[in-house]
Amino acid sequence: MFFVTMILTVVGAFTVFNEPYILTGGGPGTATMVLSLHMYQTGFVKNNMGYASTIAMLIFVITAILSSVQFASFGTEKEDR
Fold it and tell me: 3-state DSSP call for residue 14?
């Protein structure tokens, strides 16, 4: 259960969008800019879809690597009953 919670927390940390967008819109300046908000603004506000898709792939790669590291650190040994 702890492992699943850690994975969901890591994935949620990299995909948080609603709170910074609704509360601050990424400002003041770029103080609350997160990757997903930067991806949204790059793709839809600045109309640069190629760079936005690169950011999306970066989010995917970082999340996959961190999930793999967590999965390896917890191990998958089976319990004998």
Answer: helix
pLDDT tens across the length of the chain (81 residues)? 887 888 888 888 888 888 888 999 888 888 888 889 999 999 999 999 999 999 999 999 998 998 888 888 877 666 555
- Whether the bond between 20 and the residue before it is cis, its omega within 30 degrees of 0, is no
Q: Token pair of 53, please? A: 């898709």
Using alpha carbons, list the distances in angstroms from residue 72 to 14, 50, 59, 78: 20, 33, 20, 14
DSSP state of 75: -
Contact present, 16 and 33 (Cβ < 8 Å)? no
DSSP 43-73: IIIS--HHHHHHHHHHHHHHHHHHHHHHHHH
The model's pTM is: 0.77
Q: Dig out the tokens for 10 from the structure.
A: 């890591």
